[in-house]
Amino acid sequence: MASAGGKRPVLLLRRTNDLVAAELRARFRVLNFYESGAPLLSFLAAAAADPDPPRAALVVAGGAIRVDSAFLDAVPSLGCVVTTGAGVDHIDLAECARRGVVVAGAGNTFSPDVADHAIGLLIAVLRRISAADRYVRRGLWASRGEYQLGSKLSGKRVGIIGLGSIGSLIAKRLQAFGCTIFYHSRRPKDGASYRFFPDVGGLAAASDVLVVSCALNDETRHIVDNGVLEALGKDGVVVNIARGGNVDEAALIRALEEGRIAGAGLDVFEKEPDVPAELLSMDNVVLTAHEAVFTTESTCGLADLMIANLEAFFSGEPLLTPALSQVKHGYYKRDP
C-alpha cells in the first residue's frame, strides 16, 4: 500500500549527500534515521507504528547498523533491504531468507573504483609516495638530501585473495604492470588463467604482495593471520580493500613493527573508524578511510541502482542486484 500522495515509505539508515536524498524523496516517503535524532530502537518502533509502515530499508554497508533478527523483529513490515555496498557481512542473510525479506547489494557498481584504489595503495606503499610527500612538506629534502629508495611494482608476484568482480579487475590492472598473478578462492575460477592456490599460506609464500579482496564471513575472518604473514616474508606487502576483519590486525602490527613484512596499504580496519595508534606512526603503511568505493561517478551510479532496486521491489519485479540466491536445501548463500 502506498502512503498519502502515492509515495511508498522507505527507511533511510545511512547518511547520504543532498543530491541522493533529493532523488529518494522525489520517489518515496523517506523516514530518515539521522534526521530524526532518535535512538535507533525508538526510531524503528515509531516506523513500525506508522499507519503505513515501511516495506523497504536502505542501510550502509559495513556500518554500525546490523540487519539481524532483532532488527527485523523491530520492523516486521519490511520486505526488502537495500545495502549500499558489495559486502553483506552486516546482514543476516539466512534470517532474511527465512522471513522472505529480499536483499539487494551494490552489484559491480564499485568494482572499478575499488580496483583502482587497490593499485593506488600498492604503488603508494612500494614507492613510499605518502612518506616522501611528508618528507618534502617538512623541508627535509634540502637539509637531508634524497629520500630513501622505494621498490617498483613492475614484475612483482601478486597473490589475490578472492578473485570475484573486484579481484579480477585488480588482476587485469596488475597485468599491465607486468606482474605475475596468483590467486586463492573457494574454488578455481572457470576461465581464469592465473595460478590457483588452494590455501592462503601457499599463496603468500609464492607472492611478493598479498591483496585482500574477499567477502568477510566465518571462513575468511582473519584469513591473513600471523602464519600467512610469516609466509609472505620480510619483503612482502599487504593491501586490504575488503573488510578489516579479513586481516588479524594485531598480528599485522606485530609483523610490521618487527620487520617481518615490508609494508601495508589499508583502506579498512577491524574497529572502524578507530585506527590503531601503532599504524599511524609507520611510514611504511598507507592508510585511507574506507573510501575505495567512493568517487563522484560511483556515488551517482549507486544512487541510480538503489532507486532502481527499490522501484523493482515495489513493482513486484526481480531485484537488479540480489544478494541472495536460493538453493535446493531451502537456505541461501552468497552469490559467487
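That was protein one. Protein two is written in the same sequence-then-structure order:
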Amino acid sequence: MEVENSMNEKRILVAVDESEESIHALSWCLANLFPQRNNVILFLLYVKPVPLYYSISAAGFPSSANVEATENYGKYRATSVMSRAQAVCKQINTNIKVEKKVGTGDAKEVICAAVKALEADILVVGCHDYGVLKRTLLGSVSDYCSKHVKCPTVVVKKPKTE
C-alpha cells in the first residue's frame, strides 16, 4: 500500500464498509474536512474479513468450490462498497482525488497499518454506537484505531433517528 506523499498534499483515510454509519462518516468527511483546494487526497479503505469456510472435505480441508465462492463473494462485497462510496464522493464533491484500497484481515489491524503505509494525516471512521455489552464482546474498531494510529482520528457518529 506504499504511496508517495508530496509535502503539500493532505491525506485523509476513510474506512468504509457495508454499514450506514461508515457512509455517514464519509459524507461528513466530505462536507466538513475538505478545504477548497486541490492538494487533498482521499483514500477509501475497505477491509474484507478473513473468510470462514463452511464446508470441509473428507480430508479435513476446505472444499475448493466453497473457497472460490467465498473469495468471489468477498470481491463482490468490496466492489459494491467501493462503488457506493465513490458515488457519495461524486455527489458531494467532484474535485476530490480518490484512491480506493482493499485490505483483508482484522479491520482494526488493517486500518492502522494502512494509516502508516499511506502516511495519512487524518483517519475518519464511523461509529456503530454499540452498547457496553456488545462493545465488550465485539470490541470497538474506532476506539482501537484512535489509540494506535499516530495521526488524529475523527470518529463520526450517525445521528439517531426517532
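The CA atoms of residues 21 and 126 lie 5 Å apart. Keep this in mind for the problem set.
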